[in-house]
Design brief:
By secondary structure, the chain is of the alpha/beta class. Helix content is about 45%, strand content about 10%. It contains 22 helices and 13 strands. It has a five-stranded parallel sheet with strand order 3-2-1-9-10, sandwiched between helices. A three-stranded antiparallel sheet has the order 5-6-7, with no helix packed on it. A hairpin with a 4-residue loop joins strand 5 and strand 6. Helix 12 crosses helix 14. The two termini are about 45 Å apart.
Length: about 525
């Protein structure tokens, strides 16, 4: 769905959040420990779409389970034993380098980016730290290192020995045509080091005979990192290895006959275990296009933090169900509406607003509580709204002019008291992020620049006269709302359409026909400054 000005939760029948409902299903599996897992293949740049399905959705269920007092763990698997199949867009890589990279396991494939030794290092550098910036600390697991350590040896042997049954399930569920003698392992070629182009021929109980596209033919043990299970078997093997109770994945895996269907059938029919409870997670779109690390149209976790708080993205993931498609962009209204939804959720949490039903109000309160990085204070903190921060950041320095900014917020009624030390730090961070957003993404309507001279051409003399009269109310106005009302009433008293009055005000101050809420703008620019300009028209 396109992020729009609406309520994230629209199903008030139950008091539970979607994460609570998923946790209820998971608890039905009766485990001593509930492992919530996500798996990501570092095929390109990690982005917020990957983070939604593989980090935040499992985290939400993990958090709901922990709230129920049960033993739970979140695991994030880096599927770095997969082979490189595509070079991400925008990278300058020579044909010779591409030939070396393609088909080689990600863990030790050459890096396509200068400054890194391997492909793996290039695309996961700083990833764990970025995740922790959002208050999430999963157990991060390397698939290759898990194979290398021998943890998969028994599962490799079991899979090879059950190859005929795996083939039957795979062909039936997926409509595939795997040969009866197919073996579900990909050996690493001893000559070229690639795994994508090898074909397992036979198994003697200890070693797999294989051939490679490079012309090499050999025989070797498939254990201790010498081979990787084929993807659909590999996925089921991860569930078995850690007794996974819950997993989220991109919706493409949930198509009929897809990897989820095949994996679940293999679990039940081949390995005689129940698969984890799984939920599909929709894509995050950028301007209608699927975000893709290999295509290059990505917003990563680090770039998110340059623009918005970690709590805002946490709230998006808690408030919007995983099967809700999000069409998002910093460059259109969807971002501001997301922030406004988060700010409104805080007001609802502290009882300053309510939703249309008590159940929905309670659900939003819980989602907001889940989105917090730590314990929430008993009373609502004084907070600088993001949209107002975007305007103030264009006029004042968030560090040097902070005392003046706080004065404007107090005088305009935006806050009721001075900031505490922690509130001031948070407000400075908001101003810094908002400035970055304005300078790099914001639409014209959010740009704020005082016109050198008023642009009053074409305005009726009566409108200009009414503006001068309205200026007399500026000095005594106690807050922005009172000032807004004063301009509206002055227009009505002088038979001027309020819309014309506000349009004229913006032309006088900004040189354009639109701008932020007028009362707010006047306090931001300075009442004396605005009064002097309007009286001089």
């Amino acid at each position: 769905m396109k992020l729009e000005k609406r309520k994230p939760e629209q199903e008030p029948e139950k008091n539970e959040t979607w994460a609570d409902e998923a946790a209820d299903h998971v608890l039905e599996t009766k485990r001593k420990e509930y492992v919530c897992e996500g798996m990501y293949t570092p095929s390109g740049h990690f982005h917020i779409g990957n983070a939604r399905s593989e980090i935040f959705t499992p985290y939400a269920v993990y958090r709901a389970l922990k709230d129920r007092g049960v033993k739970a763990k979140q695991v994030f698997v880096l599927d770095d034993f997969d082979a490189v199949r595509k070079i991400p867009a925008g990278l300058d890589v020579s044909k010779e380098e591409i030939d070396k990279i393609m088909g080689t396991p990600i863990y030790f494939a050459p890096s396509p980016i200068k400054g890194f030794d391997t492909w793996n290092h290039a695309f996961i550098d700083g990833l764990e730290e970025s995740i922790e910036s959002f208050g999430i600390k999963p157990e991060v697991v390397s698939a290759y290192e898990t194979y290398k350590s021998g943890q998969f040896n028994a599962l490799i042997k079991e899979s090879i020995e059950n190859a005929p049954e795996i083939v039957k399930v795979w062909n039936r569920v997926a409509g595939s045509e795997k040969a009866e003698n197919f073996l579900p392992v990909q050996m690493i070629c001893e000559q070229c080091g690639k795994s994508l182009y090898t074909n397992a021929l036979s198994w003697d109980g200890k070693e797999v005979e294989y051939e490679c596209k490079c012309g090499y033919k050999g025989k070797k043990s498939p254990f201790d990192g010498n081979a990787k299970l084929h993807w659909r078997v590999h996925w089921a093997a991860h569930w078995l290895l850690r007794d996974v109770a819950y997993e989220s994945a991109g919706k493409d895996h949930f198509s009929k006959g897809g990897s989820v269907d095949v994996g679940q059938a293999m679990m039940r029919e081949v390995f005689k275990k129940e698969p984890p409870y799984q939920t599909p997670t929709e894509f995050i779109l950028v301007g209608g296009a699927k975000m893709s690390g290999s295509v290059g149209n990505v917003v990563n976790l680090k770039s998110w933090l340059e623009v918005a708080s970690p709590e805002t993205f946490r709230y998006l993931n808690f408030a919007y169900k995983p099967n809700s498609q999000v069409d998002f962009s910093f460059a259109d209204n969807s971002f501001i509406l997301l922030v406004e939804n988060f700010e409104r959720a805080e007001r609802i949490y502290y009882g300053l607003e309510t939703e249309r039903s008590e159940k929905l109000t309670e659900k939003i309160k819980k989602n907001f509580a889940y989105s917090a990085l730590g314990a929430l204070p008993k009373e609502k903190p004084e907070r600088l709204s993001y949209q107002y921060a975007a305007f103030l950041a264009q006029l004042y320095d968030h560090e040097k002019d902070f005392a003046k900014i706080q004065g404007i917020l107090l005088e305009s009624g935006h806050i009721s008291r001075k900031f505490t030390e922690s509130e001031a730090a948070e407000s400075k961070a908001t101003l810094k992020r908002a400035k970055f957003w304005v300078e790099n993404f914001a639409q014209e309507r959010f740009m704020l620049k005082v016109a050198e001279t008023p642009a009053m051409e074409g305005l009726a003399p009566d409108t200009i006269a009414a503006l001068k009269k309205a200026a007399s109310h500026i000095e005594k106005a106690k807050n922005a709302e009172e000032l807004q009302t004063a301009f509206y009433n002055t227009a009505k008293e002088n038979n001027i359409k309020p819309a014309e009055m506000f349009k004229a005000s913006y032309l006088a101050l900004l040189g354009k026909e639109f701008g932020p809420k007028l009362g707010t703008l006047i306090f931001a620019l300075g009442k004396e400054r605005v009064k002097k300009r309007l009286e001089g028209l």
